[in-house]
Specification:
The protein is α/β, with parallel strands linked by helices and about 290 residues long. It folds into 2 domains: about 120 residues, FAD/NAD(P)-binding domain (3-Layer(bba) Sandwich), CATH 3.50.50.60; about 120 residues, 3-Layer(bba) Sandwich (FAD/NAD(P)-binding domain). Helix content is about 25%, strand content about 25%. It is built from 6 helices and 14 strands. It has a 4-stranded parallel β-sheet. It has a 3-stranded antiparallel β-sheet with strand order 3-4-5, with no helix packed on it. A 3-stranded antiparallel β-sheet has the order 10-11-12, with no helix packed on it. The radius of gyration is 22 Å and the shape is globular.
Amino acid sequence: SAAITAADQGAQVALIGSGTIGGTCVNIGCVPSKTLIRAAETLHNARAAARFAGITAKAELTDWRGTVRQKDALVSELRQAKYVDLLPAYNGISYREGPARLTDGGVEVNGTYIPAGKIIIVTGARPAAPAIPGIETVPYLTSSTALNLEEMPQSLLVIGGGYIGAELAQIFARAGVKVTLVCRSRLLPEAEPEIGAALAGYFEDEGVTVVSGIGYRAMRKTENGVSLTVAYGGQETTIGANQVLITTGRTPNIEGLGLTERGIAVSPKGGIVVDDRMRTTEAGIY
């Protein structure tokens, strides 16, 4: 979007990407997640129709792999239409693939120097894992990889009570997975407490077990999957599942950019420090 806006204003733009073009929304965010949300919602609504007299409906999940592949096809179609096919229409945009590093007066990509008077850093973020002892030994799912899961586990432990964890917990529960969601504070901590409490009630109605106000103690791989030991209600307890999904936040993709060398300040949490106009501490870099 920034590249197209700049090109529309007459600028010559070098758009540098490292990885799949299109960013979070079309590849691993809005498009794939909402597609699977609607699929699970269709299952749920059909099953719920029986609460009305005179209505009989039936829905069952017969091929989740097929549902995921349909999602993948939609993602590919939109990526092609909105990015790959769109960029050539802008003469002022040159797309370069590869990791970029800030240098004096521009950037370097695969050994090629590109001069630039203005630079916009939009490298996004990736899923972050909490500091739970033993987590590095467990093959956990993230909000990205969970959307590509073609085989459903019998049980799933979701760690994190934000909106991403809530969305994914409901998708899997409606698809027939036994889901337990745990969080350190409460469900939807960014929303009003009443909203989180109401959603927790709806989740319980749909078979999702919500355990909030816990402290993480340890995680380990087991014969049947994974176990998480938590402090809850004044004592330690262990929760087990076939697979675990981590949805406890994201961390910025800033490695290798050369921020320190260019004098760009970074916050203690790893984000780039900006002002109210998105300017970094280095003139001309946003």
